[in-house]
Amino acid sequence: MPRAPQHAWYRQGIVWLAAAVLAASLAGSGWLIHVAGRYVDPPLPAEELTGPRLPKLPPARPEAASATAGLEAAPR
What we know:
Layout: H1 13-38, H2 46-49, H3 64-73
């Protein structure tokens, strides 16, 4: 049984709202890509480009003795 013309998909407001949100997000993404292409990041200093690429962490784990020393000093 065919549906009435007033119930067609193009007469539903939510469909047009979803299409508008999709179009706005695609246009915004394109605009951000365009703007990001205009402004180039400054080059990194040479000292950051040499050596291992690790985050700034302590070079080694603390000794087990120093970890247990704090527990012994705590009141029981």
